[in-house]
Amino acid sequence: MDVVAACRAFVAVSGHGSFTSGAAAAGIPQSVASRRIAALEDHVGARLFDRSSRAVRLTSFGQDMLPTARRLVDLADAMTDDAERARLRPLRVAVPEICPPHRLATLVAAARRQRIHLEVRPAGPQERARLCQALEVGAGIVAVPDPTAAWRVPLGLAARTPFPAPTVYLETLRSGRARTQARRRILIQPEDDVAHLRDPLTRAGQSTGLAPAQVTVAPSLVDAAATALGSPDLLLCSRQQAEDFGLHWCPLAGPPLVRGYDVAAGVRDDLEQFRTVLHADIARCLGAPDNHRTSLGGATPGHRRAKDPT
């Protein structure tokens, strides 16, 4: 027996003095109200209503039980209200600063359709990790090495002028014999200033003869992009970022550099939906390909090709 439903029928009928009116107020047929009250009477072991006359009157036992029944109905209603507020409470999520606002808005809208209300907090990789560890957010899209990633974003180099070949070889960035020739730098944006991305690129540059200053971390993405737009320097970035800035993008030769992301922290059950129903929306925010498990070896299709920018 549903005790709450039975008590709701009991309270409604007692308040209206009629099975017909009480059932209508409770939004149920009269026959259902009668069955529920009869079941409640069996449950408590005594009559709640005196049915010996046309009028519906509470028995003395029913009068004693009515306050408790009202409290039970009120508590059930309060629980329903609390559950709805809990579902609507925003889940604070630390996201990469590089996520474009219009794509974040699409993610938030998609989450609401799944009854998850997100409050995004853009931050750099180190700050996102700190926010998650300190439990200042309910979840975070954190930077992780490629093999453990739920989302993978291939990185390449972007320049203001097209590239002459399908891939860029680091040795082609070595300065020539003429000392007047400027050394082209590779600019690492703060999002990629993490050991599993920065260190391999730095070592690769050193092994191919690049000067130490040719691989450098920029103070911000805007600064790095502005430098790439106004000089021969190259921005390490995703294809999506290059397109957003109007730069030409090309993958690096050799082992691929890949941003890896996963969900961290949080105890809410709906966090798993980040990796399932919200996976594609998060991928679009991060600039990850639709098929995030596609092999990244070699060139990707659709890169821009033209004359040597050097």
Automatic annotation (TrEMBL):
Residues 1-59 form the HTH lysR-type domain. Gene3D superfamilies: Winged helix-like DNA-binding domain superfamily/Winged helix DNA-binding domain (1.10.10.10). Signal peptide: none annotated. Keywords: DNA-binding, Transcription, Transcription regulation. It holds the Pfam family HTH_1. Residues 290-310 are annotated as: Disordered. PANTHER family: HTH-TYPE TRANSCRIPTIONAL REGULATOR CYNR, TRANSCRIPTIONAL DUAL REGULATOR HCAR-RELATED. Belongs to the LysR transcriptional regulatory family. This is LysR family transcriptional regulator. It comes from Micromonospora cathayae.
